[in-house]
Every structure is written in C-alpha cells, then in structure tokens.
Amino acid sequence: MTARNSGCARMQYQFRHAVICVFVVAFVAVCLKMTCSQQVAPPQHVGVGAIDVNAQAGNWLKRWRAKGNITIVAYGDSIAAGVGVTDPSEDSYPALIAHFLRQWLAPTRVQVIQMGIPGATTDTGLREIERVIATQPDLVLIQFGGNDSRNKRPIHAIQNELSAIIGTLRERLHAAIILIVPPFQTRTAGGPVATAIREIGRKLRVTIADFDRALHEHEHDFRGWFSPPPTHPGEYSHVIMAQELWRSLHRLFGRPLTSTVQIGDTSLFLPKQSHAAIKIDVRTHTQRAVNTDLTVEHAKAWYHWRFENVTMNEGRTCELKLLPPISHSMRSISERIVAMVRADDDLSWDVKWV
Predict the structure, then answer these.
(1) What share of the chain is helix, strand, coil (3-state, %, to 5)?
(2) What is the mean pLDDT of residues 88-101?
(3) Do residues 175 and 139 make contact, with C-beta atoms less than 8 angstroms apart?
(4) What is the pLDDT at residue 194?
(5) Which CATH superfamily is domain 51-255 in?
(6) Residue 34 pLDDT exceeds 70
(7) Cis peptide before 229 (omega within 30 of 0)
(8) Are 108 and 60 a contacting pair, CB within 8 Å?
C-alpha cells in the first residue's frame, strides 16, 4: 500500500512538472513573437504625411513642381473658411498660402479649396472626410479644435477623432498633411485642447502649424487676436497664422528659411498730400552671402530692389515712398502692402496695411 501510494505521488509530481514546462515554453514563445513583431512592424499611422517619410522620400517641393498643378484643401471650421476677414479669397490664411506658393512654385498652378464648416468640431471633420478625399488634394490642412473647446467636448474624443481623420487621409490619399493648432482665447498657449492637439501631432509624427503659439508670441497689437467680429481672427491675425504655416511648409519640405522680410510700422499720421515712407527690412539666415530680390506690391503697382551679398549679420533696409489718396483732413484709410523676397531657391513674404 505504501509503495503504491509512493508511485502515484511520483506520477502526479511528473505530471505537474510537465504541465508547468508546457506553460513556460508557451509563455516564452509568445514573448519572443511579440518582441519580433515589435522590431519589424512599422509605426502605426505613418504615411506620406509623416516626418520620417518626408525626410526619406517625401520631397514634396520637387514633386509639386514636377506635377505642374497642385490642390490644397483647408479643412476645418469657420476660421479655415475665412470668417472674420473682409475678403476670404484674398486675406484668409489658406488664400495667402496659395498666393505665395504660386509665386514660389511658378509655373506650377496652385488651387486652394476652403472647406471650412462654421461650428464644426472634430467629429464633424471625421464625418465629412469623404468630401476631402473626393478632391484628391496634394496638401491637406487640418484645423479643428476651437469649437470643441467652446463646447467642452472630452479631450479623449477630440484626440481619437483627429487620429481617425489623419489615419483615413493617409490610407486613402497620397497627400502631405499639416495639423494646425487653432488660436484659443486663453492667457497662455498651453490650454487643454491646444495641448491635446500638439500631443496627437507628435504621436502620429505629423507636421504641425501652431497658430495658437504664434499668436501668443507675436501678436501684441491693438487689433487683437479676434478683432471684429469678436469671435474670429481678423486680417492681421490671418497674416500671422499664414506665416506660421509657411514655416511649417518649410519643415515639411525639409529645408530652413533662407531669408525673412518685414514691413515696418504702418500706423502713420500724415499731413495732406504728404508721402509716407515705409521701411522694409530684409534678413538672411545662412552662413554664406546671398543675393536677394525684393518685390513690393501696392495699389496694383510693383516696386523692385536687388541686394547683393546679403549676410546673416548684415541685412538690408529700403524705403517705400507712397502718396496715400487723402482728399481731406482727419481721414483714416487702409492700404495693403505685400513684400516678397527671393533668395536662392526660396521665398519669404510679409503683408501689412498702412
């Protein structure tokens, strides 16, 4: 009886040992499989608009020039539609970007479609995504978040819907993508929705244009971020947003800005029949000297200056003398001035109102 019990105990021990070994082997196999899959699997949602693809094979600038015509879709809410500016077809940030891309990429034709939906939130953007895909764009500007913040929508919902929008565009299009952080009326650029959008951009490795940060850092002016009507950015703000988008395009292209141009103070008090002298500064951002061509447009007239051997430490300044059409005293007028600088194969610009 004792020997039989001993044999049974030994068999039970061997059985338990075998079961444990099987579980250990299975666990190790699963771990090895997961490790291998993590090593070879590509990152999720990395498509043609991702930074690493841009750096390797996404030479968008060269591709767009070779194509001959490109389409930009500004997809977002009422700010993307240009609500708040007098002429959205000329002064909104999508229109400004399209205008200066035409100058830079000529003779490539540039079409912009302002697909802004007043009141739209990120769930609206996901629901209407087929409208963007139908245009077969070369560049999609995604700008949602302002209405989400106003409606106090959950952060996780905003991030999930933006991720789905970007993932769908990458799967269905061969287009570059820029994710825009819209402007918020907050004391700092670190609001919860703005932060959430930046996190999604970094996570999905999308080129970001941070309108919120650009306005907080650079727009210290009586016209304000949301000058009339009070709920939308005005012309002055759209210029700053477009300039931030221009810097983001250069990051998308994988090249730094060669130069910058800045139109000086344009708030002037002048006697009747007096000329206004507007200073325009040109700066370069390369270690070597470059030749620059400055073109200024005002009242359908063009002015041109050429500066030789401009260096980083030594810029150039010129004066544009204008005779404003003032017919009587105490009259306030607004005149639009556009300045463009070509340096090597690059273009920079500024827009102001006198």
Answers:
(1) 40, 25, 35
(2) 96
(3) yes
(4) 96
(5) SGNH hydrolase (3.40.50.1110)
(6) no
(7) yes
(8) no
